[in-house]
Amino acid sequence: MALTLNESTIAAESVAPKVKRQCLLTAQHTQGGNVLLDRLTVEAGGVYAITIGAVDLAWVQILEGEAILAHGDAKTSLTQAHIVFLPPDFNGMLATPSGVTLIHATVPNAARFDAAFTQSPPPFKVVDWTREPVLDSEHDARKRIYVATPKLFGTKAIKGEMIIYPPGTQASNHHHEGAEHFMYVLKGRGTAWANESPMTVRKGDLIYYGDRERHYLRSEGDEEMAFVEFFVPGEYKTIWAPGAAICTWTPTGRSISGTKPVRDIAKHSSAEVASPQDV
What is the DSSP letter of 116? Predict the structure, then answer.
């Protein structure tokens, strides 16, 4: 069943000195705890310990501020441009000199969704989404940026993308078979539909859709709406409502900042079940 909630309505609990957690998506919300989501606020000088289970995978997305992730002998600097994918058995310490806000998602027992997961677990990976290629919708002004694919992260257990809706933009009604997914609104406001029932959404909102739940979104107001969405598992079938435009994504040859992207992606349709090989 669809779920929408805003981060401001969820109580924060202290999990370490200068670290507070809000549990946005729990096992009670999802179908057997397939994906869990926390929002964390780390004050200046705080440290957040990250430990991933032996059969799990996870990722962290910086929402505001900057941090340094220490893992093994390496230290990785992170900003709002970064999404970090964490493999099984990962251990690290995230520290911030000036404060940072992030979302931390986990897929427990990820091998359920990828037969190759146990023998070939995905690697540690940092994606700078501002350098990834932007694709334009063929039917409207929406934009898509892939952030988690088998090519990027090495597993079919999840798929992730950034979607940008200019003012007044609306997607076609559809549903997915074989996956659940959530959206986290990064900026702007709009209306989200679940089985033709509208819900007002805004920055800081989590929107969760179960398998086979019909949905679409429209941006409202003068500001563009942007959200990140993740699917579990990462391969599924999309079914479009009768008469709905099936979206085709066309490469622009540029990143969101207008520079040459770090890789190329060919034109493809959202009707495809599997991700194109170049994604």
Answer: T
Residues 114, 233 contacting (CB under 8 angstroms): yes
CATH class of the 9-128 domain in this structure:
mainly beta
Where along the chain do its domains lie? 9-128, 130-269
What is the phi/psi pair of residue 114, to 5°? Answer: -155, 110
Residues across the chain: 279
Contact 146, 160 (CB under 8 A): yes
**Is the separation of the CB atoms in 158 and 194 below 8 Å?**
no
Mean pLDDT computed over every residue of the chain: 94
Stated pTM of the model: 0.95
The second-level CATH assignment, the architecture, of 130-269 is Sandwich (2.60)
Residue with tokens 């003012």, as numbered in its chain: 167
Cα dihedral sign, 2-31-5-86 = negative
> For residue 230, how many C-alpha atoms fall within 13 Å in the half-sphere facing its CB?
24
> Would you say 106 and 58 are in contact if contact means Cβ atoms under 8 Å apart?
yes
Asked if the domains at 9-128 and 130-269 fall in one CATH topology, the answer is yes
Q: What is the pLDDT of residue 87?
A: 96
